[in-house]
Amino acid sequence: MSATNDLSTSKPLPTITDLTRPFWSAAKNSRFVLQKCGRCATFNFHPKPWCIECGSRDLNWVDAKPFGTIYSHTISRTVAMNSPEWQSEIPLLMCLIDLDDGARMYGQVTDCRPEDLHIGMRVEVHCVDISDDAGIPKFRPLAAPAKVDHA
Amino acid sequence: MRGEVAIVGYGRTPYSRAKPGEPVLTVDEYIAWAADLALQKAGMSKNDFDGQGLGVAHAEVAHTVNWSAATAENLGISPQVLLRADQGGASAASMLIRAAAMIHAGIVDRVLVVGADTPLSIPSAAPGLPLSPERTRGVYWDFQGPFGVMGASAQFALVQTRYMHQYKLTPEQLGKIAVNARFHASLNPGAIYRKPFTMEEYLGSRMLSDPIRLLDCVPIVNGGLAYIVTSAKTARTLTDRPVYLRGFGEINNYYHGSRALPDITTTGFAQAAPQAMKAAGVTHSDIHFLQPYDDYPFIAMMTIEDYGFCKKGEGGRFVEDHDLRFDGDFPLSTDGGQLSGGQPGGAIGGFMPLVEAVTQLRGEAGERQVKNARIGAACGFGGIPYGRPGRSCISLILGTEP
B110: part of which helix (H) or strand (E)? Predict the structure, then answer.
């Protein structure tokens, strides 16, 4: 994974707390981490105060497999309930991604033509810098051509 | 608790799209207006609620702390019990259940439940779309907004795409729900959009977030609604047409399957609706109409099948095979729903299925009246959890007899 840069816009930034800092800091350093339950080994996402499976507060940030499978997808063709700064990325490919470690997350898929997006598609994480303190994981097709023109 | 409480009054203010030149009312003014209409309908006065109950639904628009008590202050009522619901579009339904429990316990005899919102008057980061401060704070937002999630249409589009992967569903089937809602709106003077549209117009409306189109979406409005619930005994002294709460079912944060990787194509209605029908002592064939929380035609369709009117996965086919008009064999969203009626903020739209069900059961629905309607189902559906369709699912069975 190599971090790319998205520091030039004013897209919404997360409010970073002690709970969530490990996630943002890791992505800033091109690492993908998730909370893993020390009792039942469930991976939790988004960050939780205890394990939603067993209730244990023994949650630990661990390196997670940076791979997943598209569970569902949509193509956002307008900006809605979000910052107008996203306009430059419309049409935006938004997915629900089942991570190989067993959690599900919203993720933007890049480097993919809208018509190629499909359920079951294998994707990998790549991290994008969004501030001095945070990066964000996005996804791209696994073993896809290096760069595809969105137009 | 079957038949122990009844609704004796309801009110729904005219809705506004807040066009230039229209007067801009505050949430407090809409609450008072809706409450006034409900009190008039019930033949009651605000002073009848001193020492009784007042319920206030959450609003998107900024409001003060202790908001339910502040609302009592604004209305000049001294209630014994305050209810405050923050279950989004399930708030109106949940307060009916809470009020029924309070009345059942003998704590109060009656509750005035109000809700209003002015989402079009919220300063917004996205022009024309409300983005209240509560939506843009906290861990829930932090893991969506910065990721590029575009609100409810993207969230529900993801559910719909998955559904269409697992089951058969055509755009025409959902279009039928949208066209039908607009037809009903044409018969409802209170609906915000009343000019019928065709299936071709539905299919031709622009894609916002595949597979969700413009005509799948609700028009957001400013407005308010209210209802009054009392003990059955008091209800009978007030009106010869009380609408009884026959049964209810509720589930919050429902998972279908595992918590980490649930199947998102089934809603909590799969649990709440059978519970409500069992409590009411009715089966599907006893129900004369369904008022779903129709924030999208797709949600109305899933509601139908999760209620068990057909097998899971056959909701599209069910819609195709039935006449959804008020005079058809499966009357659906008889007021035009939120799809064509308008949505006064997510939370307050949840009053509409309840208020329309009561309107129908009292025989006050005018041109869109379902003949001989005696038992009806109304839904509350509130909030969008991370990566799933509905935080709160409530099913209400209402009837003209206890």
Answer: strand B110-117
Name the percent of chain B in helix, strand, coil, to the closest 5. 40, 20, 40
pLDDT digits (tens, 9 = 90+) for B5-29: 999 999 999 999 999 999 889 999 9
Q: Alpha-carbon distance B382 to B299, whole Å?
A: 12
Task: Give the closest of B146, B151, B157 to A81, CB-based.
Answer: B151
Domain residues for A39?
19-141
At B212 the three-state DSSP class reads strand
Q: Which of A13, A84, A108 sits opposite B148 (nearest CB)?
A: A108
Facing residues of A61 across strands? Answer: A35
Among the listed residues B289, B302, B307, the one whose alpha carbon sits nearest the alpha carbon of residue B358: B289
What is the tens place of the pLDDT at every residue in A10-67? 788 999 999 999 999 999 999 999 999 999 999 999 999 999 999 999 999 999 999 9
Residue by residue, DSSP assigns A55-101 as --S-EEEEE--SEEEEEEEEEE-S--SS-GGGGGG-SEEEEEEEETT
Q: Per the domain annotation, does A12 fall within a domain? A: no
Domain count, chain B: 2
Answer whether B313 touches A (CB < 8 Å).
Answer: no
pLDDT band at B61 (very low <50, low <70, confident <90, very high): confident
ipTM, 2 dp: 0.95
What residue numbers bound the domain in which B41 lies? 5-124+224-238
| B56 and B97 fall within a common domain | yes
* pLDDT surpassing 50 at residue A1: no
Structural domain contains residue A1: no
Chain A: nearest CA to B177, how far in angstroms?
Answer: 22
Are B286 and B192 members of one domain?
yes
**In this structure, are B113 and B161 located in the same domain?**
no
Count of domains forming chain A: 1
| CATH number for the domain that contains residue B167 | 3.40.47.10
